[in-house]
Structure formats: structure tokens, C-alpha cells
Specification:
By secondary structure, the protein is of the alpha/beta class. It folds into three domains: about 40-175, Rossmann fold (3-Layer(aba) Sandwich); about 180-350, no CATH class; about 360-534, no CATH class. About 40% of the residues lie in helices and about 15% in strands. Helix 9 (about 180-190) crosses helix 13 (about 240-250). The termini are far apart.
């Protein structure tokens, strides 16, 4: 992995790799690793076995995803086994292209198919898109496109879950390294490294030794996992590259300042901002220092008896002054979360919507019908803030009165879909990939069964939070535009099937907060009843 911007030259004391990573920038790449370092960073998993077994059976494999997801690392690791099975291996589609022309890669693929050889390819998302657009008539490309349209599975088994040919697409952007199994394995790999252990035996490495000791403690590890799970639930992800750099920093830190606020503490390195890495911004969303708890905050600030004991290994050194500056207090609060026996209470008063969403992803969300009803009512509230009797019994297909009126001040619904036709689903890997790697969901889906195309609203945490706030009375003008667009698209997709009930017309005016319900005759030729709400 290459050194980033301004990285110092580090003597090889057994920990050179980890020091280099701790100082690395976003340009660190797997291609620059020595073979020895490559082995030290390799995290074995089911995916290597999956790829090799697939190729030995005569199949082809396409590995795609984002930069830093580990595509090149994966194929480089198993390349010898793939080539011994007769496969043609392209470790990087971009490197094979000429002036962004994907034809050289497609030509290699065609030649492999004609020779009866398996083909293995690693490609970032955009080069992969170029390949699919330019090679629509190439062998396997129709199946590749189908698998890309069905990267995840929902509900009961679907026909789209199995591979329809001898090619399989592995999207590594679905493998979030923050998921518990991968996260734990990477950290174990670092802490068990022989070179690191040898370097930490030196007297001057007391700070790094302390960090390793704490990062090995069961309580600290458990709470690190909990933070990683929360990040996944909130929709954040990390690349393998970012995690290696972050873990290395947690051992070696980034210098020292302040009394409690020490940059060589593992907890400070974890939450230290670095504009080069998106993960360091994501971690701000789960920073214990930003969660207020009046009782424990007061106890920490006053160094009360309740926080003098109960720490893993040892308590942080006391500050030399009677009151804590903000940075010192924040550093102590982070250590409290990770190391104190009551540390989990730091998040006790955190966002309740986030906790509820995390439980849904874990399959512990309570009654499915109750959830569907609450979601349907919240979506209706996004268009009609006036409460009426059946707002939770049907999803109304609202449309703005005039296209040129932006934002719309009134909406009309001439169709509605019964709540009973919707279910909530948690995504999973399709059957063709279920033994490939661990997948941790970051969204749920509200799905309309029995409708053409099976319309599905993807509800990630930002949209979930908006829907919960709508249920509590959030005005439409405060709904994020991104969420409005997603709800509009879902209603339009439902309306395209034209299968909803049509016995009434509903019209709501947002400025007057007035709702009018017009009941129609059976043949829809006349109004039979008009009712006003609001």
C-alpha cells in the first residue's frame, strides 16, 4: 500500500507497514504492497473459496465495487489458483482499457469463452458500466446485466436469486467492512501481527502498547463492534483501505496535545477528523462525546466517586486543572464509553429513531402489520397533513394539481392501495452469493405485492427518520428534497399499475389545511357525497 501525501520514510522495525498506514493518505493502494506486506494485510474469508470453487467448476466471475473495496486484492490473492484452473484473469479493467475503450477487455473475454476458459475480471463501477454498455452482445453480458439489476433479494425466494448461466457477478460494495465479522477479523489480524508485537517491546512504544492492551480488552472490543453496527444501520460504510489506516492510527496515534485530549489515545485517533477519508466524517455521527447524558456528564466533569472506579484495566490520568476544557472532556467521555462498566449509558439518551431502525435491521422490530400501517400513514402525511379516518388503511396516490406549480400547494388522489397489499422486507444476499461474504443490511423495503413490477420503496435511515418525524407532525416544507423525490417516484410506480381503488377523489390544500373527500357513483359518472375535513 503506497504512502500518502507527506508520509515520512519509516525504518523497518517490524511495524513499518503499520506506521506507514497510520500516516497514509487516500492514495494508498494495494498495488504498491510488497508480497510480504500483502500477506500481512490479507484477511481470509469465504469469498476466496467461493471464487476458486466457481472457476474450478468452469464458471466465470466478475468482481465489481468501489475503489478500495478490495477487488484487486482478492484476485491477486487467488490468482495462482485461478490460473491453475485455466482461467484468464484481468485484475484491473481500467488498466486494460485504451483511452477508456473497453474493447480490449471484451476481446479477452470473448477469446476466453471461445477457448472454453473461465474468465475473471475486477472492475470499478464506472468501467464496469462501460463494459456492459459497449458489450451488450458479448457472451454472458445479458446475464451480467440481469444480476446487476437484482443485486439483493427480498422476502421469500425469487427466481432472480440464482445464476442463469456460468457467470456470477460479485459486488463488493455490498460487503461493508464495518460489518461485525469483517471488522473483528481485521482488528484481530493487526493485533496478532508478529512484526507489531516485536516493535512494541521497545521501551519508547509505551503509548502504542497501552492502545493494543485496551483494544484487546473484551469490553472495548464489544463497544467498538456496537459502534460499527450503528454506523452500518445509519447507512455509512468504509473501504478495506480506510479501515486498515484507521486501525493503524488507533495503535500509533497522531501526536499529543492537551491533558485528556491526547491524539495518541486509540479513542482520539478513532474520532480524529481527516478530510481525506469519508469514514472519519461518518464516525462523527456516533461520537460518544456528542451524546449528552446529564448524570454521567456531571460525574465525569467533577471526577465524582461513580467514575473513579469501574474502568477496564485503569482509569485515565486526572486532569491537572479543576474544570475540564471541552476537548479534554470529549476525550474523557470517549474513554468512558469504551472502558467504563457503565459506558453504554453514554448513548442512553441518543436518537430513539436510530435505535428503533437498528432493531428493525436486526429483525427485532415488532409487529410487521403495525409497522406497515405506520409507514403508510407517514407517507400519506407527507402529502396530506390533515388527519382523516382511513389515512392508515390505504396509501393514496397523490399528485400535484399543476405541474408548473413548484412546490405544489395542493394534491389530489383518485386512487388508493389498501395497506394489506404492502409488506416490509429486510434485504439479504441472493442465493447465488449467500456463501460468498457476510452482508449486513442498511435499509428495509416497503413492497407492494400483486402490482406490476413489484414496486418497492427503499427506506434507509435518512428516509426512516423523515417518516418518523412526519408521523409526529413534520410539515411538508421541512421534508428533505431527496426524500420527497423518492416518495414521488414510489407513488408514480404504484400508479403505473392502475390497480388501486377508484371510488373516491381526495383533494387537499396545504395552505388552508383543508381536505375534501368526494365519493363517486359506481359508474363514476356523478358525485354522491362530499365531505370536508380540517
Amino acid at each position: 500500500m503506497s504512502k500518502g501525501e507527506g508520509s515520512p520514510v519509516v525504518a523497518d522495525d517490524g511495524a513499518r507497514l503499520w506506521r506507514t498506514l497510520a500516516a497514509a493518505g487516500r492514495e494508498a493502494t494495494a498495488e504498491a504492497l510488497t508480497e510480504e506486506d500483502f500477506e500481512r494485510l490479507h484477511v481470509a474469508g469465504g469469498i476466496e473459496r467461493f471464487v476458486v470453487e466457481r472457476v474450478r467448476a468452469g464458471g466465470s466471475v466478475v468482481v465489481t465495487g468501489n475503489a478500495g473495496d478490495g477487488k484487486t486484492h482478492l484476485l491477486r490473492r487467488v490468482k495462482r489458483d485461478l490460473e491453475s484452473a485455466g482461467a484468464v484473469v484481468v485484475e484491473d479493467a481500467t488498466a486494460e482499457m485504451v483511452d477508456d475503450d473497453p474493447r480490449p477487455v471484451l476481446d479477452k473475454w470473448r477469446a476466453a469463452v471461445e477457448a472454453g476458459q473461465p474468465f475473471c475480471l475486477a472492475a470499478n463501477e464506472y468501467p464496469f458500466y462501460q463494459l456492459r454498455m459497449s458489450g451488450k452482445s458479448a457472451p454472458h453480458m445479458a446475464e451480467v446485466g440481469r444480476q446487476c439489476r437484482h443485486r439483493l433479494a427480498y422476502g421469500e425466494g425469487e427466481r432472480s436469486e440464482c445464476a442463469a448461466g456460468d457467470v456470477v457477478v460479485i459486488d463488493l460494495s455490498l460487503r461493508n467492512p464495518l460489518s461485525a465479522e469483517f471488522f473483528e477479523t481485521m482488528l484481530d489480524r493487526l493485533l496478532a501481527d508478529d512484526g507489531l508485537k516485536a516493535a512494541l517491546a521497545r521501551p519508547e512504544e509505551s503509548a502504542a502498547r497501552r492502545n493494543v492492551e485496551l483494544l484487546s480488552h473484551p469490553r472495548v472490543r464489544e463497544r467498538l463492534r456496537a459502534l460499527a453496527d450503528r454506523l452500518v444501520a445509519l447507512g455509512h460504510r468504509a473501504t478495506v483501505r480506510e479501515l486498515w489506516i484507521l486501525f493503524a492510527r488507533m495503535v500509533f496515534g497522531r501526536g499529543e496535545r492537551g491533558a485528556y485530549q491526547r491524539a495518541d489515545w486509540y479513542s482520539e485517533a478513532l474520532f480524529g477528523r481527516d478530510e481525506r477519508f469519508e469514514l472519519t466524517e461518518s464516525l462523527q455521527a456516533v461520537d460518544p462525546a456528542k451524546c449528552s447524558h446529564p448524570i454521567w456528564d456531571a460525574a465525569l466533569d467533577a471526577r465524582a466517586p461513580a467514575v473513579r472506579g469501574g474502568w477496564a484495566l485503569r482509569a485515565p490520568l486526572p486532569a491537572p486543572h479543576p474544570t475540564l476544557e471541552w476537548e479534554d472532556f470529549a476525550a474523557l467521555k470517549r474513554r468512558f464509553y469504551f472502558e467504563h462498566e457503565k459506558g453504554e449509558e453514554a448513548f442512553e439518551l441518543a436518537d430513539a429513531d436510530a435505535g428503533e431502525f437498528e432493531r428493525l435491521l436486526d429483525g427485532d422490530g415488532g409487529s410487521g402489520r403495525t409497522l406497515v400501517t405506520s409507514l403508510v400513514e407517514a407517507i400519506n402525511a407527507a402529502y396530506c397533513p390533515v388527519r382523516f379516518e382511513s389515512r392508515d388503511q390505504h396509501l393514496y396516490l397523490w399528485n400535484g394539481h399543476r405541474f408548473h406549480e413548484q412546490p405544489s400547494r395542493s394534491f389530489v388522489a383518485a386512487e388508493r392501495v389498501p395497506t394489506e397489499q404492502f409488506v416490509t422486507e429486510v434485504p439479504r444476499l441472493p442465493e447465488r452469493l449467500e456463501t460468498c461474504f457476510e452482508y449486513r443490511p442498511d435499509h428495509i423495503a416497503l413492497t407492494a405485492h400483486g402490482h406490476p413490477g413489484t414496486p418497492r420503496l427503499r427506506i434507509d435511515f435518512p428516509l426512516w427518520r423523515t417518516l418518523r418525524r412526519l408521523a409526529r407532525g413534520l410539515p411538508r416544507k421541512l421534508i428533505p428534497e431527496r426524500d420527497i423525490h423518492r416518495l414521488d417516484a414510489f407513488l408514480q410506480e404504484l400508479g403505473a399499475g392502475a390497480v388501486g381503488a377508484r371510488d373516491s377523489i381526495w383533494s387537499v390544500h396545504l395552505e388552508n389545511l383543508e381536505l375534501i373527500q368526494v365519493n363517486l357513483s359506481a359508474d363514476r359518472s356523478r358525485f354522491e357525497r362530499v365531505r370536508r375535513y380540517g
